[in-house]
TrEMBL record:
Protein name: Guanine deaminase
InterPro entries cross-referenced by the UniProt entry: Amidohydro-rel, Metal-dep_hydrolase_composite, Metal_Hydrolase, Metallo-dep_hydrolases
A GO term, aspect molecular function: zinc ion binding
Gene3D superfamilies membership: Metal-dependent hydrolases (3.20.20.140), Urease, subunit C, domain 1 (2.30.40.10)
Gene Ontology cellular component terms for the protein in this record: cytosol
Gene Ontology biological-process annotations: guanine metabolic process
Length: 426
């Protein structure tokens, strides 16, 4: 199809309106006008009759998936070291590997593989951690820009409790390098945006957090970090910030916790009631990372509570806490761990349904990027075309069932096309 952002896609269309409502239209028409959805129709309205039409036949067309949390430099050791808990895993596996991204040759090899696989995935939007290294972070941003995905990428800040091989000299040096990074990439990208990335409270001094707030304000940047992932981590934050009411309060104290600052916090497995209330009040996004929380024995986040409270929530793969970049896998994992939480810890919190998990991986997380993750009119047109012919079976399945099966069984081989904001990527 030639490069035009006015076109029509035909196929079996599935998208969420809200957590419990999945729309399915067989042999429907999805109209893209200037990169944005102009609606889904059973019959093509006359005004679009002459527009270029791509017929995907019996394939499914769904919104692009959003990964609200993953670490590009950890891609190289995914599937390794899964016998450790968070703090030990960071020290023995993660920090030594991330330290290698000070070497641009190594970074190019690692980030090229990462970007290539992200391009081939069903993900169209992602919030990505790089490392503390400015030059290789810019390299990652250049590579992500080329994929056509729309991503937010952060140079990580770390000025305490980190090994000599992966630490910034001082709060001042960390802030200075962050400013240099922002200057270096200013005006450089169409698809790629910077996101402020204090790694987590244990690795950032109060002085650094104060300086990052100034940068956040001056550049109107979004923020990503980690929150209440592991009980040892939470106890440590209490020691480091004795003045904080709870972990999230340590971010909020510095104005880096929603409330006019677009903020996404990964995990949120062990929130207190006060923390939930503050996240809700401030509109903080939860990046629910069920596979990582299982691999690192962190626990099971109270996703049902977050949904019941109408909070902002989406899914993250958290590579390499999670072993791969599939957000479909994150949907299945979210359903499965919610069942375990329900059965083992609290039978008042009902497990997630397939519709809810699909919503989280599309419209729920997509909202962090604006009107993204649905096909309702006005949404940016991110779409993934799925070919499930190989998964078919003699029994008749309706569209919702075919989607359910793809969530559990699909991999890259079933992805037949991808569009981001009306541009075809493959
Ligand atoms: N907390 C601080 N850094 C990390 C990280 O790299 N991964 C995870 N899962 N949690 C963290
Ligand atoms: Fe993480």
């Amino acid at each position: 199809m030639k490069e035009t952002r006015n076109f029509v896609l035909r196929g079996n269309i599935c998208y969420s309106l809200d957590p419990t409502t999945l729309e399915t239209i067989e042999a429907g028409y999805l109209v893209c006008e200037d990169g944005t959805s102009a609606g889904v129709y059973r019959e093509l309205p006359e005004q679009y009759a002459g527009w270029p039409l791509k017929d995907f036949g019996d394939r499914l067309i769904i919104p692009g998936l959003t990964d609200l949390h993953l670490h590009a430099p950890q891609y190289g050791f995914r599937g390794l070291g899964m016998d450790l808990e968070l703090l030990e895993w960071l020290n023995t596996r993660t920090f030594p590997e991330e330290a290698k991204y000070g070497d641009l040759e190594y970074a190019r090899r690692g980030y090229t593989i990462f970007a290539g696989n992200m391009k081939r995935s069903a993900t169209t939007r992602a919030c990505i951690f790089a490392t503390i290294h400015r030059e290789s972070t810019v390299m990652l941003m250049d590579l992500m820009e080329e994929t056509g995905l729309k991503t937010m990428v952060g140079k990580v800040n770390m000025d305490r409790n980190s090994p000599d091989i992966l630490i910034e000299e001082s709060a001042e040096a960390s802030a200075r390098d962050t400013l240099a990074w922002l200057e270096q990439i200013h005006g450089r990208y169409e698809n790629t945006r910077p996101i402020l990335t204090p790694r987590f409270i244990p690795s950032c001094t109060d002085e650094l957090m104060g300086r990052l707030k100034e940068i956040q304000r001056d550049f109107d940047l979004p923020v990503q970090s980690h929150l209440s992932e592991n009980q040892g981590e939470i106890a440590w934050v209490k020691e480091l910030c004795p003045w904080s009411e709870f972990y999230g309060d340590a971010y909020d104290h510095f104005g880096l916790f929603g409330g006019g600052v677009d903020t996404v916090m990964a995990h949120c497995v062990w929130p207190s009631e006060a923390e939930i209330a503050r996240m809700k009040e401030r509109g903080v996004y939860v990046a629910h990372c069920p596979q990582s929380n299982t691999n690192l024995s962190s626990g099971i986040a109270p996703v049902r509570t977050y949904l019941d409270q109408g909070m902002n929530i989406g899914l993250g793969t958290d590579v390499a806490g999670g072993t791969g970049e599939s957000v479909f896998r994150a949907m299945a994992d979210a359903i499965q761990v919610s069942k375990l939480r329900w059965r083992l810890t609290d039978d008042r919190l009902k497990p997630l349904t397939v519709q809810e998990a699909f919503y989280l991986g599309t419209k729920g997380g997509g909202a962090f990027f604006g009107k993204v993750g649905s096909f309702e009119p006005g949404y940016e047109l991110d779409a993934v075309v799925l070919d499930d012919a190989e998964l078919q079976h003699p029994q008749e399945l309706d569209l919702a069932e075919r989607l359910e099966r793809l969530i559990y069984l699909s991999d890259d081989r079933h992805i037949a096309g991808k569009f981001v904001a009306g541009r075809r990527i493959f």
